[in-house]
Design brief:
- The complex is a heterodimer of chains A (203) and B (188).
- Chain A is built from ten helices and no strands.
- By secondary structure, chain A is mostly helical.
- With 188 residues, chain B is an all-alpha fold.
- Chains A and B meet through helix 8, helix 9 and helix 10 of A and helix 6, helix 8 and helix 9 of B.
């Protein structure tokens, strides 16, 4: 396919190659340990031509993250559209997220888990705004399913994200389909766990 | 001397957690605890040694806290529930350290990181051992996946800044972590 690309496609092809190489290297060795020269080498170009596409590795990370976030938002919204109840919508959203995370974005997931330290301030702000919009989709379902404050709902959402992204650490070697279902099951049960807040210590 | 060491570590935790390890200098830490660079370097050879102390202390303390909370419990089911609470209590009370550990551990030399991972693995093998008694039908791989999902729940407060009182946060984290692990379906 690439060989048939017209000359106008070449920059897009090279840009994609850079993103692929950088994602791989960041995931293997950590964002901090990887330099632009290495990314260039791995993508088959000089550091100088690399800088024609990206101002630095922080900018590359922002694009990787942005693409993953766009795709997961779209997939989750489409999945939620097809369901009749909040419970079912939540499950489909989680499955869409788990599926993209396990099958396609394991490397980006690993970076997200480590936090936003490598990003420029403007990128960080834009991405957290985008993430807020995505997570509103989760919050809408949880608000329907639980009677809880916004603070509690968002704490529950962050635990759910943590469960999904924990596969980067446990790194199980079994079938992707099975793993995705297991993640969905744990995440849903965890986020919807029954708890009487503040009940245990202040009886 | 022990007090001074603690004082320096406390200042470092606040600064690292607020600004990130890379953006904090030894000078900042010195001035935060009213010490000259000279006396600071008497206690810590460099900034990485200080970061290592922050991370290692956290791991040692969480380990000690769990051991003291669980030592008298023989029933694995009770110990499993109690482990979730005790671990949640500890991380909620030490959020700044946890944030530094999670975000900045990459800055440590490989040998220091390996040592921290050793403690994590020891802690997790006790966790997995109890979970395996509570959920004997899980495969070893599944028990590991479930336990690390539970740990991730407890650690999720490192990046999120929940608007809940500490007691509520402990209750919620412990309940979510336990529910996730208990929900994992048996492998076919």
């Amino acid at each position: 396919m690439d060989a048939a690309a017209s000359p106008s496609d070449v920059p897009a092809v090279r840009r994609a190659a850079i993103l692929r190489a950088a994602g791989q290297l960041f995931a293997e060795r950590g964002f901090r340990a990887v330099g632009m020269a290495e990314i260039g080498e791995s993508a088959g170009m000089s550091a100088a031509s690399l800088y024609r596409f990206f101002s630095g590795k922080g900018a590359i990370l922002a694009v990787l993250w942005d693409e993953a976030l766009s795709e997961v938002t779209e997939a989750a919204a489409a999945a939620a559209d097809s369901a009749a109840s909040a419970d079912e919508r939540l499950e489909l959203i989680l499955r869409a997220h788990a599926s993209l995370l396990v099958r396609k974005y394991a490397h980006v997931g690993n970076l997200v888990r480590r936090g936003t330290a490598g990003l420029h301030k403007a990128d960080r702000e834009a991405l957290s705004e985008k993430e807020r919009i995505y997570l509103r989709l989760w919050a809408d379902q949880l608000h329907e399913l639980l009677s809880a404050s916004d603070g509690e709902i968002f704490t529950r959402i962050f635990t759910g994200l943590a469960i999904l992204h924990s596969v980067a650490v446990s790194d199980p070697q079994y079938q992707e389909d099975v793993l995705i279902e297991e993640l969905v099951c744990m995440t849903k049960a965890g986020m919807l766990a029954t708890v009487a807040l503040g009940g245990s210590d202040r009886g | 001397v022990a007090d001074r060491r603690e004082e320096i570590i406390s200042a470092a935790i606040v600064l690292f957690s607020e600004r990130g390890y890379a953006d904090v200098g030894m000078v900042d830490i010195g001035s935060a605890c009213h010490l000259s660079a000279g006396s600071l370097y008497l206690n810590f050879a460099n900034k990485a040694a200080l970061l290592n102390a922050v991370c290692t202390d956290f791991m040692t303390q969480v380990d000690e806290h769990l051991q003291s909370q669980l030592a008298s419990l023989d029933d694995p089911h009770i110990r499993f529930e109690r482990r979730m609470r005790a671990h949640a209590e500890f991380v909620v009370g030490h959020r700044d350290q946890l944030r530094v550990l999670r975000r900045d551990v990459e800055h440590l030399p490989r040998a220091d990181r390996a040592q921290i991972w050793e403690t994590v693995n020891r802690l997790m093998s006790c966790w997995i051992e109890d979970l395996t008694v509570v959920r004997p039908e899980l495969s070893p791989d599944q028990a590991r996946v479930a336990a690390f999902a539970g740990l991730a729940v407890l650690q999720s407060i490192a990046t999120a800044r929940p608007q809940l009182a500490e007691g509520e946060l402990v209750d919620l984290l412990a309940a979510v972590a336990a529910a996730a692990q208990l929900a994992l379906p048996q492998a076919h």
